[in-house]
Amino acid sequence: MMKMKKFIAMLLVLVMTLAVCGVAAYAEGEKVTVTMIAAQYGPKTGDWWADFEAKFEQSHPEIDLVVDVVSWNDIYTVVNTRLSNGNAPDLLNIDTFADYQADDLLLPAQDFVSPETYAKMYPAFLEQSVVDGVVWAVPDLASARAMYYNKDILAAAGVEVPTTWDELTAACEAIKAYNPDIYPWGIDMTTDEGQAAFAYYTWGNGGGFVDAEGNWALNSEENIAAVEYEIGLVKAGLTNSDPATNTRYDLQDLFCAGKLAMMIAPNALSAQAGEAGINYGFAAIPNNTGVSVSAGVMDRIMCFNNDQTEEEMAAITAVVDAFYDDVPYSEWVLMEGFLPATSAGGEACAAADPAMGAWIDIVGSAKFYPTAKAEWADVKQGVINVEQRALLGENVADLLNELQEEIAG
Amino acid sequence: MKPKKHSPLLNRTEPYLWILPSVLLMSIFIIVPIGCVFYMAFSKISKAGIVKGFNGIENFSKVLGSKAFSVVLSNTLVWTVVVVGLSTVLGFILALLLNNKFKGRKIARAIIVFPWATTLVIQACAWKFIIDTDYGALNTLLKSLGIISSNVNWTPTPGAYFAWEIACGIFVTIPFVCFTALSGLQSIDNSFYEAATVDGGNYWQQLFHITLPLVKPSLTVATVLNIIYVFNSFPIVWTITKGDPANRTDTLVTYLYKLAFYNGKQGEAAAVSVIGFLILLVCASLYMVSALKKGDE
User: Fold this and answer.
1) In the predicted model, is pLDDT for residue B268 greater than 80?
2) By Cβ atoms counted within 10 A, which residue in A200, A383, B15, B100 is the most buried?
3) Are residues A75 and A116 in the same domain?
4) Residue B244: which of A21, A76, A191 has the nearest Cβ?
5) How many helices (H) and strands (E) does chain B have?
6) Do A279 and A324 belong to one domain?
7) pTM of this prediction?
8) Are residues A55 and A149 in the same domain?
9) Which residue range(s) make up the domain with A173?
10) Residue A385 C-alpha, separation from nearest chain B C-alpha, in angstroms
11) Residues A204, A290: one domain?
12) Do the domain assignments include residue A321?
């Protein structure tokens, strides 16, 4: 009896040990497997992809599609871990591609996208994924920014919708005089999205991250003046109290609570403000040059080079084609509340929702972050750091010179 | 039943077989990751996370050469010393109070556990909400009591933010100290106090000459464990400020997280991790040496 118990105990220990070692055997089917990691844009993303997977496998019984939907908080960690373990997915839906391209991990877009699907993409979007003359990723959706304003507050303060920086400052002062409990203008300089603020003001002043040749030009005169203007608004008490820790989501909450008069936000704010009963409008971002520039953000789908066979490449192309098929694609974009990246999707979305039409025009004129450049991650954190240090009282010109030296020097 | 004799081989190997699972678990979840971090700290790693070969101490020299690092290191020291120090003192005082007999003592002890039993992220979110300038609970409360007339910005400077984070850290650390001290207090034989009272010892003399020396071992354990926990604590700072503005509220752990997952500098992040590990190793060794010395005495 004792012996039996001991034997069972030993057996359990052995089983545990094996389990720890992660010994697992699984049978391989005859199907071609396509793996994909997709970013989770909203609460319904997971369900949408599960549904897509089921429908796709029904119409393509020879392909086994495996989509992992991963939240934005974890996606970089998940992807990097899989890459360093030599377990790259076939397809990846994420924002940046340059880091993967720099390591020669990607296949050119035209290797995994059929010519028909490729032709549907807005060319301006494809240009954002070019390195060495090759397109490495295709856009899956975009979002653009515009200035949202609370019509009631502006009317009560007796100001028109500002279009220039001077008008903006005047409007902010008038709103502050009307009700000191309302923040006239929202700015987010946090680690989350401080680079967006940098973009709004520098682009609105004729500057930006790069010069006409595409070289880093972070310390241009225009940029220095732009950041000084932005910091000046905060110092004058015309903005939210703590731009270094108030994220755009905090600002959107303030806007929807009627405590913030104006802010720059993506089209997703329309739905939130509408639900909150705010009488809102949106207009071009105020600028200092007479030319308004919207900031565009674009996400992408890319394909990793896993030495796929021809059969596997055909399966990957079939997945991509099915995703960009006009009807499901425009449904997906509308569900996520973003803007489409294909012309057919654009038409479908504009037809479904008239308010989308204005946004599709805005995104057409948008500038994008230079995400194709390898130093982008450093620049992004660098400009956020510049804004936050300027906020603490350091000299803007010195900070930008230092950053330019660090990045391009 | 007569115990049967095992073969000598089984006799010798059996103990090792029994501890094999824990050894395996420990190696997989503790030793291998530590090894990986050291390996990464001395490697060049691309932004996509691919190891591109050995690069000596380049990661370390980059980290030590950056301006942010000294700010972050001094923040970490302030954070650890103040949180551990104050929570030890306050936790001990609370334990003394709870060691007295009074009505509702059980309920009071249960309430103390709450901050400890709640996830740190939730705690930090609650604190963030309390001190928020625009819709924080603190401003709302003070306004409804008529103490202030308009919202007060409780976090006007990075230092103020850091102070609130430290306060939150102390709040969540007190229960652990309190319970460790309480277990020590309860093990003190009452006859010591009776003898002291007979000899005319007052409350303070009893506290410093009986209570403290006898509770010291449990307080020391609590302090060492706390130094490790607090030094490595991530959720409070991350939830409240993410180390912003400009690293003024970063500690080593939040800083290395940003380096790895926001800046794509995993090699440098691993180097920061190694530095933190070494600092803690020194602290722990000092404790071990002093504890072993005491044991010899």
Assistant:
1) yes
2) A383
3) yes
4) A191
5) 14, 2
6) no
7) 0.81
8) no
9) 144-294+372-408
10) 5
11) yes
12) yes
Task: Report if residue A397 sits inside a domain.
Answer: yes
Q: How far apart are CA B86 and CA B90, in angstroms?
A: 6
Residues A13, B248: C-beta atoms closer than 8 Å = no
Q: What ranges do the domains of chain B cover?
A: 49-296
- Same domain? For A114 and A151 the reply is no
A72 contacts in chain B (CB < 8 Å): none
H/E segment holding residue A142: strand A138-150
The CATH number covering residue A129 comes to 3.40.190.10
Do the chains contact at B47 and A381, CB–CB below 8 Å? no
Q: List phi, psi (to 5°) of A74.
A: -110, -15
Comparing CB atoms, the residue among A13, A105, A242 nearest residue B48 is: A105
Counting Cα atoms < 13 Å in the Cβ hemisphere of A178 gives: 20
Chain B CB within 8 Å of residue A130 CB: no
Angle, alpha carbons A145-A147-A152 (nearest 5°): 145
Chain A residue with CA closest to B152: the answer is A241
Give residue-wise pLDDT tens across range A121-148: 888 888 889 998 999 999 998 888 999 9
- C-alpha of A375 from chain center: 17
Name the minimum distance, in Å, from the CA of B174 to any CA of chain A.
27
Residues A249 and A394 in one domain: yes
pLDDT level of residue A23 (50, 70, 90 thresholds): very low
In the beta sheet, which residues pair with residue A146? Answer: A265
Whether residue A254 lies within 8 A of chain B, CB to CB, comes out as yes
More confident residue, A8 or B246: B246
Task: Name A297's bridge partners.
Answer: A143
In a domain, residue A377? The reply is yes
A193 and chain B in contact, CB less than 8 A: no
Q: What pLDDT is attached to residue A231?
A: 95
| Positions of E strands within A257-381 | 260-266, 280-283, 294-303, 366-368
Q: Which amino acid is at A184?
A: P
Q: Name residue, tokens 């003898």.
A: B195
A126 & A150 share domain: no
Select the residue of A191, A245, A392 nearest B258 (Cβ to Cβ). Answer: A191
Say if the Cβ atoms of B49 and A192 lie within 8 Å: no
What's the pLDDT band for B293 if we cut at 50, 70, 90?
A: confident
The Cα–Cα gap between B294 and B276 comes to 27
Domain B49-296 superfamily per CATH: MetI-like (1.10.3720.10)
What's residue B283's pLDDT?
85
| Cβ contact, residue pair B21, A17, below 8 Å | yes
**Tens digits of residue pLDDT in A157-207:** 999 999 999 999 999 999 999 999 899 999 999 988 899 999 999 999 999
Which of residues 146 through 205 in chain B touch A, CB cutoff 8 A? 150-151, 153, 155, 158, 161
In a domain, A209, yes or no: yes
What ipTM was reported for this prediction?
Answer: 0.79
Confidence of residue A319 (pLDDT cuts 50, 70, 90): very high
Interface of A with B in 271-330 (CB under 8 A): none
The pLDDT of residue A361 is: 74
CB-based contact A245 B242, cutoff 8 Å? yes
Distances (CA, A) of B139 to A162, B52, B146, B148: 32, 53, 10, 8
**Interior angle at CA B88, CA B85 and CA B93, nearest 5:** 130
